Description:
The chain has 14 helices and two strands, in the order H-H-E-E-H-H-H-H-H-H-H-H-H-H-H-H. It is mostly helical. It folds into two domains: 25-54; 84-328, MetI-like (MetI-like fold, Orthogonal Bundle). Helix content is 74%, strand content 4%. A hairpin with a 2-residue loop joins strand 1 (56-61) and strand 2 (64-70). Pfam families: BPD_transp_1 (PF00528).
Amino acid sequence: MAVPFYMAGMEICMNKKKKKFVSYAKWGYIFLIPFFAVYIVFSLIPLISTFYNSFFENYMVGLMQVGPKFVGFDNYKAILFNGDTLLYLKNTMIMWLMGFIPQILISLLLASWFTDLRLRLKCTGFFKTIIYMPNLIMASAFAMLFYAIFADQGPINNMLNSMGLPTYRFLAEVAGARGLIALMNFLMWFGNTTIILMAAIMGVDPCLFEAARIDGANSRQIFGKITLPLIKPILAYTLITSLIGGIQMFDVPQILTNGNGNPDRTSMTVIMYLNKHLYSKNYGMAGALSVILFIVTAVLSIFVFNYITKDMEAAGIRKAKKKKAKEAK
């Protein structure tokens, strides 16, 4: 029996399509290879090496190398039972909070203003660019700028003297040094936080705001009852990333205090303490301190994330129960 011409043509086309079929899955894995290669070389291997070195006594005394000698958890004990570690961790958290609290408050305020269509703000693109620009400046350059401005003979003290006020030694006072470090961290990061929170607020369905206004809710109630609960995941992300950055605070206080944490080590951070061990080539102690910081950061991040998102999870469970109850009826 002869096969119709159009059937033969369809069969030829299907055979061609089968031959031209390409498995895109393998290309996805191929494109992932560079990422995993960079991650293994620059992150995973150094991480494993840090854990390994933390169990060894390994340092320099003049030109003589001591170790590496396996000492178990002795490096960890020396750090944990050393009062300096807790002091430097306390300094770090104080300076981080001094910068983060105004940062999140002002960022929320600016994000709500820029995303409120009723205000009809003009030149918002210009203002967004201006507030984000400090984030593009290197922290070292920022620290040198503040060091020059707030020096004993700097412009700020010259202005105070012209007003008949005495010279205030910012870098010689605890409040002054910590305040400058917190101010620099605030100025460098509040623009980035504002942009992130703006994106979060713009992702909220505008119908919810309109419905609330129709029901008579004012701006404060809308912000507290609708905006904040719906952007909690982004707030959690912002808080966790800022916390990690705060614990890793190094460049600004290092340059501003010349690595000494003046006055009287009140602005010395944990990473500056770690840097001193690395500078003295005490790799065992530096590795142990790095591991402790890794554990502290992980625990704090998990705690913050669970605390912020627990209400959302509870709401999701309640919705699921209500849905099941309706289906059962």
